[in-house]
Amino acid sequence: MKHRKVPFRVLTALCDLAFISLTAKCILVLVALFTKEYTPQTLERINLLVQLAESMGYSIVFCSLSILLRKAMEQRPFQGQNIQIIYFIAFVFFAFGAILVFIKIAYKETLDVVTVYPGFIVHTLATHVDHFFMGLFAICLAYIFKEGSRLAHENHLTI
Asked: What is the pTM of this model?
């Protein structure tokens, strides 16, 4: 039975390590934002804001995943609180994806440039659309956990 918990412990440790390193990156980016002299809308400052938003979002996600893995390690994967954590992760992906898209749209010089053919350039937001897909995946995962919770509760009531 102990060997079943080893993957959960490794994953939890990796999530904790990712959370700590992303939180440290957030702190370093904040220090860089407030210690340097900038003109009001320099590209460097906008890129730091994008890095801060991404790091904060992923830090929150990894913290939530660590909590979820600890509960799974305690043999309680289908509790209602776990489903709420997964919905929260989906919300974080949607919210920070929207923030990143807003920053990209507000400052057009940060949009990704794709050259379709010489002389025809397209500005795109494709790099931050993946946050929305990860949010959709988390919602699907939460629904699967919700059904698992319902089946586990139904099974518990069966004699």
From this structure: 0.76
